[in-house]
Design goal:
Elements lengths: L13 H5 L2 H20 L4 H21 L5
Amino acid sequence: MSLDAHTPMPGRGFADRILRRGPLEAIATTIIAAGVVMLMQPFSLTLYSWSFATTLFGTVLFTIVSKVRE
């Protein structure tokens, strides 16, 4: 039995499709960017207060995700 390019890989579940480096890196980068925007906005002290934690969380997430397989 041969597999062509259009045959789905057996055992490829929902988690395997979602937990990939590309989409997770994009999410981590978006969180980092949101933290930087929160840091630079002049309107809300609450957003400013949470900006460092948000940026730090995105950075840690990016570091962890960079170890995930392709």
